[in-house]
Amino acid sequence: MPRQSATARIISLSLVGVAVATVLLLVRPPDLSLQGRRLVVTIWHPWGGATLETFQNSVNVFEKSHPDLACKTLYVPNDLSASQKFFTSVIGDCAPDVIFVDGPQVAEWAHRGLLLPLDDLLAAEGVDVAGLKNDFFAPCWEQGLYRGKVYAITYSADPNFCFVWNKKMIRQAIERGEIPAGALDVDKPPATLAQLDRWNALVTRRVKTATGDRLERIGLVPWGVYGNANSIFTWGWAFGGQFYDPATGKVTADDPRIVEALEWMVRHAREYDYERISNLASTFQSEARNPFFLGQQMLNLAHMSMIADIDRFASEGEGKLEYGRDYGVCPIPQGPGGLNAAAWVGGWTMAIPATITDPARRRAALRYILWNCRQPEGTTLAARTNRCFPAWKDAPFFPEAAKDPRLAQFIDILRSSRHQRPVMPAQAFYMDQLGRAVDKAIRGELTPAQALGRASRATQERLDEVLAEQGGQP
Amino acid sequence: MTPRKERRLGLLFISPFLVGFAVFTVYPVLASLYYSFCKYDLLRPPEFVGLANFRTLLSDPLFLQGLWNTLVYTVFAVPVTMLTALLLAFLLNLKLRGQAVYRTIFFLPSIVPVVASSVLWLWLFNTDHGLVNLLLQPLLAGLNGLLGTQLTPPGWLTNPACTKPALILVAAWGVGGSMILCLAGLGDVPRQMYEAAELDGAGAWKKTLHITLPMISPVLFFTLIMGLIGSFQFFAQPLVMWPNGAPGDSALFYALYLFQNAFLYLRMGYASAQAWILFVVIVLATVLVFRSTRRFVYYEGDNV
Q1: N or C: which end of chain A has fewer CB within 10 A?
Q2: What pLDDT score does B293 carry?
Q3: Do A294 and A411 fall into the same domain?
Q4: Among residues B250, B255, B251, which one has the least CA distance to residue B278?
Q5: Cβ of B42 and A279 within 8 Å?
Q6: Within a domain: residue A133?
Q7: Where are the domains of chain B?
Q8: Are the beta carbons of A426 and A459 closer than 8 angstroms?
Q9: How far apart are CA B43 and CA B45, in angstroms?
């Protein structure tokens, strides 16, 4: 290779320098603080896809109405097992000002000293904590408390669940002679679990194959309600059970009424064959291929986001489902625990990490939280972001949503809900144990009493272990 | 340049690696050894508890289940994948038209990202509509007709007895890497050896047994060791295929349970203890394999 002259070398080095400087200038983040005129609130949120757009829109609206604040948002996944980024940020003292926390996580994070108790901050801002409590639906407020202190404020209320049935597909099955005419009235949904069992038997269809038979269509799968753990919560409460006694700190998954609920699930698994149901369920897809739209699963429990899915994916052509004519939404069939006993609320909360010590940043974070959780504009935009309700009782979103008779049913559930998943610092472990217990029972490996007894003991052990660890600042 | 100066410059040039290695590998490894004797939740300083983590592990049914699942998987997956790779290499070593195309086709699965291939296999393994059972259906129907049995297609994803065989099948599908190694080994066997053997009247079977296999034995040994280590650390596929856990914890592998303890339940000390047990198991297995197979491995060079 010919030797470069000194001039050529200087020119090429300068060019590299200019290129590097240009790149550095281009990638430099914009100055959100507008040279110190605004305080920047950092927010870590779990929203992606289309939800991100509506979330970002709400952030822009917030900034417009709060000219002294700017928001820096970052998507950080949080699915109960991927919160390492947040944990390390707290340890490394570079946590965001606002963090979204899933309801069941609050107690554990509070116990481990990750979250700031908000009571004093609220009082300093002139917010009456006792009054605030009454502003929220009880289970939504409860999930943000730990040992009597407020650690998080609920951002979205997620009432679970409504019963949905596909009238159109049932009618077609009757016309084809697959369901005896007159055996069920499509306009009168099952009101009790006994009636639900009968409907399940009628809509389920087996077909012959070269080596036996398989299920082509099923009704409601009791353990298919958003996973095993959420299913046993739903039916356990429907049977009148209690999963945890906060007064004594006792885990009570083996409550006889929960055992009874699992026994009912196991009977279903035996009747229709757990494996055959699993085989059919493993073909289920989402969005436009939702098994409920296609009639693969004619009865189900629905989360309120399903309403938006129906409007989006089953709104035209042959697959169109029209509310009232083609499908219905109603309260879930009544269990032995009484009407609406099964209703429970989940949802996201917002909190401030414990390591935020600057009073100005704390105040700014709280203003952002309260705007989202307890102010007309914020709560409406938040509800649109995540297709759930505000947890604030007087939110103007409710009269707007109640115009839709389907959402009105979910509002009723929210109003009558008495439960949220147990508020205790071994919640993730508990859900795993419950999921395992359901799996072992419906496959016949253990009896419901054995499986739930085991889950109860293991969780109690884990809970005692966690409680014995010194809570406090990391 | 004096040797001393040369050494210094050499160290200077590899210092980015040395620093990275010390900070991101040596320190975490040693730290995890210390944490395995501690109660540690990531958020508070570790608290020394002696052998408590190890004692708890021995009575933890999920730990034992994970260990069992991993052992079963290793015992079957390693020989199956090695044999598949070797057979494919033999076939693809035949002088055929389009040899390179066939080699590419069989190598392709090994470069498919693990999440994509796992999702693909979820469909292939579907009991009622999957391609695997679609192929099995006529076979089983024929057998049922002949023998009067009542065999049904396996529930690959839903029956605890079938989940591990399913994963072994997936492993056999992705043997492209080992297959390429075997092919390279086959290409290195000197032709003269075969010619000499042919002169002595050796047939194809004898040539394979007494020339090919001994000559490629270092390659086979390498794939065996790497396969063994990889199987003990098996993690991603079961996580993608059963995000909520496989039926009966049948696909709860060791590394998966370790991950859950560390990041889901924040039992970092407990997970570190698990990691060290896994390390010891892998070392023991590797030493055992080294010892037991040394006499079957032939190296041409005499300085090995």
Answers
A1: N
A2: 84
A3: no
A4: B255
A5: no
A6: yes
A7: 49-89+102-122+163-296
A8: yes
A9: 7
Note whether residue A421 is domain-resident.
Answer: no
Within chain B, strands assigned E span 38-39, 47-48
**A256 vs A441: CA distance, rounded Å:** 15
Collect all residues from A whose CB is shorter than 8 A from any CB in B. 80-84, 87-88, 90-91, 112-114, 209-212, 214, 227-228, 274-275, 278-280, 282-283, 428-429, 432, 435-436, 439-440, 443, 445, 462, 469-470, 472, 474
Query: Regarding beta strands A98-102 and A327-331, do their DSSP bridges make them parallel or antiparallel, or are they unpaired?
Result: unpaired
Which member of B140, B150, B157 has the closest CB to residue A282?
Answer: B157
Which residue of chain B is at minimal alpha-carbon distance from A89?
B43
- In this prediction, residues B107-126 reach a mean pLDDT of 93
Identify whether residues A182 and A197 lie together within a single domain: yes
Residue whose token pair is 């690696």: B17
Q: Alpha-carbon distance B281 to B270, whole Å? A: 17
> Which of B127, B132, B137, B258 should we substitute to test contact with A (largest number of A Cβ atoms within 10 Å)?
B127
**Contact residues on chain B for A207, CB-CB shorter than 8 A:** none
Q: How far is B105 from chain A (nearest CA, A)?
A: 29
- The answer to whether residue A20 is domain-embedded is no
Q: Which residues of chain A are within 8 Å of residue B248 when distances are taken between CB atoms? A: 439-440, 443, 445
Mean of all residue pLDDT scores within chain A: 91
Q: State phi, psi for A67 to the nearest 5 degrees.
A: -60, -15
A389-422 pLDDT, tens digit per residue, is 999 999 999 999 999 999 999 999 999 898 999 9
The per-residue pLDDT for A81 is 64
Residue A48 in contact with residue A73, Cβ under 8 Å? no
Residue of chain A whose Cα is closest to the Cα of B242: A282
Phi, psi of A461 (to 5 degrees): -60, -45
Which of A88, A278, A469 comes nearest B158 by C-beta? A278
Which overall architecture, per CATH, does domain B49-89+102-122+163-296 show? Orthogonal Bundle (1.10)
Q: Are A124 and A214 in the same domain?
A: no
pLDDT score, position B109: 94
Domain that holds residue A451: 162-342+426-468
Give the pLDDT confidence score for residue B302 in this predicted structure. 60
Q: Which residue is closest to B138 within chain A, CA to CA?
A: A210
Distance from CA of A315 to the nearest CA of B (A): 28
CA pair distance A462, A468, nearest whole angstrom: 10
Q: Do A391 and A293 share a structural domain?
A: no
* Interface predicted TM-score (ipTM) over 0.85: no
B49 in reach of chain A (CB within 8 A):
no
Q: Nearest Cα to A309, choosing from A171, A209, A164, A134?
A: A164
Query: Nearest by CB to B155, which of A112, A114, A275?
Result: A275
**What are the tens digits of pLDDT across the range A296-337?**
999 999 998 889 889 988 888 888 899 999 999 999 999 898
Whether residues A458 and A379 fall in one domain? no
Q: What is the CATH number of the domain that holds A336?
A: 3.40.190.10
Q: Are residues A368 and A399 in the same domain?
A: yes
